[in-house]
């Protein structure tokens, strides 16, 4: 979802978007057994779950409201999507850094 046309095409099913896979990802991240994780991963797992949930809610909102959204709302949507992507990348990098540190130990 990178521009208004892409949102419209997804909302009208002209472009395929795997909503069920997004739901599966949201379910998977919300069902991570936090009490079984090493302490160093708990906050990262919580951030991951919250970020995926926020992404799914944003996609749902955009698909439902795409016809009535104005330019400012689309700008906010795309800014938020970029921020979510950056958050996911940062979480990935944090997990990789922990893996590397564990490998060096």
Description of the structure:
With 105 residues, the chain is an all-alpha fold. It has one domain. Helices cover 77% and strands 0% of the residues. The chain is built from 4 helices and no strands. The chain has helices at 4-11, 19-30, 39-65, 71-104. It is elongated.
Explain the layout of strands and helices:
Blueprint: H1 4-11, H2 19-30, H3 39-65, H4 71-104
- The average pLDDT is 94
| Helix share, percent | over 70%
| Radius of gyration based on Cα positions | 16 Å
- Note the gap between the termini: 41 Å
The number of distinct β-strands equals 0
**Biggest sheet, in brief?**
none
The SSE order reads HHHH
Poorly predicted regions: none
* Shape designation: elongated
Keywords:
77% helix, elongated
């Amino acid at each position: 979802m990178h521009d208004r046309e892409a949102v419209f095409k997804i909302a009208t099913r002209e472009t395929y978007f795997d909503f069920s896979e997004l739901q599966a990802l949201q379910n998977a991240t919300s069902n991570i057994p936090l009490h079984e994780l090493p302490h160093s991963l708990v906050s990262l797992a919580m951030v991951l779950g919250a970020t995926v949930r926020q992404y799914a809610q944003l996609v749902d909102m955009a698909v439902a409201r795409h016809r009535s959204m104005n330019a400012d709302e689309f700008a906010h949507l795309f800014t938020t999507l970029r921020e979510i992507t950056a958050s996911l990348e940062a979480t990935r990098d944090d997990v990789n850094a922990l893996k590397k540190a564990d490998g060096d130990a």
